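Hi R.,

As promised, here are both runs. First protein below:
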Amino acid sequence: MAERLDDPTVGDRLARLESVLGELEAIPGATAAKALDAVTLITELYGEALARVMDLAAGTAGPLADDELVGHLLVLHELHPEPPERRIERALDRVRPLLRGGDARFDGVEGTVARVLLSGGGCGGAGPAVEVVREAVLGAVPELTDVDVRQPKGKAAFIPVESLSRRPETAS
């Protein structure tokens, strides 16, 4: 059996592939066009093979789809058994414990952008939480282009006008 690739290595290979394909697309001429045609044909054939695997695994494909790399391939070939909305909900379930008492609620999809409402949470600002939520959702639903993470607007605090013109009392 061939040596398996760990997740960081897979990520490196995907980044390298994207770079090489970008370079090929920039090269004019018949040779580059043939190379891109070969990549397209291989992708189509592997997609068909993956579709057949999914047919054979019908009803038991959950563990296949849960694997990050396999899940991305299923999305690429439009074979993922779960709709994007369900994958978004699962991603949010996984990150909720990281939000230090906060919550992230799925609020729909517009085109290729998911909307998530972020509320509560501990100290440290919303910046890290927003990035955690964004990365989790995009990782689970790579067909999205972005995640719009918003914090619901709270009630404005009422401050009486007269209190603004008074100096604070000092303790004696």
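And here is the second one, sequence first, then its structure tokens:
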Amino acid sequence: MSAATGSAPVTAPAPPAPATAGDRERPVRTIPMPRLVHVELRKMLDTRAGRWLLVAIGVLVVGALAILLVQDGGEHPLGDYLQATTLPTALLLPVVGILAVTSEWSQRTALVTFTLEPRRARVAWAKVAASLLVGVGAVAVSFALAVAAHGSAIALRGATGDWNLAGTVWLGAAGYVLLGLLQGLGFGMLLRNTPAAVVLYYALPTGWSILGSLWARAASVGEWLDLNRTMEPLFSGSLSAEQWARLGTSVGLWVVLPLAVGMWWITRAEVK
């Protein structure tokens, strides 16, 4: 008996169907910078720590204005009211800048942030922009409260109006607040630890004062490197060439350098 063996004809595979518009890979869209800034603003203001810090700033400002209104019948120039609103703001607002960075690393949400936006430099710049927006808003509120308090002293306490205040004084007061905020942000980026950044930020002026009282040379060096001392002339509205040089030196050391090194380190630090 014989068996006939055969094989099925081999057919060539069908050519692939042409890709349609829906099958093509969609282009990757970059997250817009305004959206990143908006997210960082919410991180700064939608937290319990951020809100209580703003409340504390408001309480200090209102307390300082109340003292001026009661003292000497409110007979103070507008510049005194301006200092009463900007100095408490400059005292606590840098902590908001510190928390803008350190809270994300201490609560371990940085992994989520850098997963959604792997380019860490854009996130760092968004934090800088958000901090400046908060600082500008705080400065505007401080200026408005100073003007309102001086007007209330004239209307309610019968004080003599003294509205003569140069525009450079307003700019100097704004610079005082914003430079302190950027310094806090730089320390937060550099250390990424809330207690260490806060302690270092507030311990530096005290350390300069103690060292200057014990060592005369440290006092002379502090005239160039102590940021609080070099920023004091900003409220006068006019700085000499030497004062500008001192301010630039201290700002470069305590604001620009921590920000630059901190941003560089954020792009390379291990996220856990």
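A quick note on the second one: The chain is about 70% helix and 0% strand. Let me know what you think.

Best,
J.
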